Input
Amino acid sequence: MIIPNDLEIAKDAINDFKEIQRFMLLAKKEGATETYSEMKEKYLSLKALLNVSGVNLSDIDHIKE
Output
């Protein structure tokens, strides 16, 4: 069993964070408020994880909520 290191975990979380933001922006553009709200929960969880990990979100956080 291969255990991912901290860098791999951070990379995956950053990619997930970028992806969820892209979907949130699309949902907002389409007026899909329920979808946006559901995705926001994942966004906030990823944001908290990345903050605790010391990742600087200033350049990659386009939602800013």
